[in-house]
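Reopening: N-acetylglucosamine-6-phosphate deacetylase still failing for me.
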Amino acid sequence: MTGGDHLIHSARLVDGGTVADDAWVRFSGGAVAAVGSGPSWRSEPAVATTDAAGAWLTAGFVDIHGHGGVGASFDDGGESIARGLDLHQRHGTTRAVISLVTASVAELAGRVRGVAALMASDPRILGSHLEGPFLDAGHKGAHEPSLLRPATRADIDTLLEAARGTLRQITVAPELPGGMDAVRAFADAGVAVAVGHTGADYAQALAAFEAGASILTHAFNAMPGLHHRAPGPVAAAARTPGVTLEVVGDGVHVHPEVVRMLFASAPGRMALVTDAMAAAGSQDGDYVLGSLAVEVRGGIARLAGGGSIAGSTLTLDDALRRTVREADVPVAEAVRAVTETPAAAVGRGHDLGRLVPGYAADAVLLDDDFGVRAVWRDGVQVV
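Support: Ran it again with your exact input. Result attached.
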């Protein structure tokens, strides 16, 4: 479904790392048709207009790492995926990669096959992200350790064949047996390979990025930290051009000051992600992530056994707000981290994440505190 002509004017447009006051954007046929500033919008053809009255206007948010919401887990397929996406859409996310937790290779093949089928009817879905099973048991986080395994060529082929070109991202521990071969094989197949849930040291992580990995999965979490004599995967990612660093900006996974340091270390390469599990948008209580019991208390999700952080209850509008307010990141850079950078990280930088002519007419109107006032996807107002 695409919308007709619509024009949003008198906005503070945040796009491409800049802020433009008194800006306007016109949509036509589901795409951005024109962008300008001042009163010139009055001469543009439009069926309907929205007066932004000085509100922030950004491209639609893109979440490349999330697992669900409102009690629904993306691992459970069609209806659950739709329910979770509905929640995140209300908070500005117009496109998302469906992240799947560790399961058997056969189960994961079925799940990515299901996501591929859903893409035909739900344009919000960009494809799948496999967060496992090729992960280090010593940095398993909220993944069932008995299902973790080194990658084999047969496993790789099974997953690629099942996804039919829709596998957008896979998280791999490159130091495992077969790990570097997996990095190369998935990257050669056009999949964005992420280093994560890993015990890799600086040299091993750097080698993985040089071999084709292009994302760091939720920086600092489930990996060695940053030490002055052992800089680890975060430093390897920050120093490698073209590598995107995910960060869960909920104030729990990473301290706001460290978030600020990350943005300063890798300008234009930060992607705010939710890593949201089923409890996002829901009350505290008991949930399940994959096969593991999770307790949510005070909005923080932890494994019932062991207490490890188990995803988040975050939405991207809140991540944006916290990054600006608590981590003191400039608005333009924080917005880029929920729009342009994540879109590019999964191969959609040519048509998503910007409000420039030819790009999808996905947009979010935000109040001064980054609360969502309206959302458009393909030119249609959906919130």
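The chain has two domains: 6-58+355-381, 61-345. If you still see a failure, please send the error message rather than a screenshot.
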